[in-house]
Amino acid sequence: MKYLCLVYYNEKTMQEKSQEEWDALNRECMACVADLTDSGHFLDGAPLLSTETATTLRVRDGKPLITDGPFAETKEQLAGFYMLEARDMNEAIRLAEKIPPARYGSVEIRPVRELMAQENSR
Length: 122
Description:
The chain is an alpha+beta fold. The chain has a single domain (2-111), classed as Alpha-Beta Plaits, CATH 3.30.70. It is built from 3 helices and 6 strands, in the order E-H-H-E-E-E-E-H-E. The chain is flat, with a radius of gyration of 17 Å. It starts with a strand and ends in an 11-residue tail after the last strand. Residues 1-114 form the YCII-related domain. Belongs to the YciI family.
């Protein structure tokens, strides 16, 4: 089963890190991805740019409403994601514990709902 691991942390706290600390964390993340890939659990993932670069889109009455910034003001911001393959939630949790930024924020783990193609849908 697929699990999406959403990585959150406080961007302001992370911006206070030195370049050496930031580089070390990035190396840890790359090593984590390599280990998860080698074990067959890593499917996809990526870090995100800061929320300052975000745009939120809503469609109301068929018209797009665009707002600069993230969907909501929160204490922690979405920083990236890991898509993992795991037997069950327990294994997904065990794998997500290895995600380095979890030390600075949180990792939300959610099962992916598979959409079923409908035959003869009319």
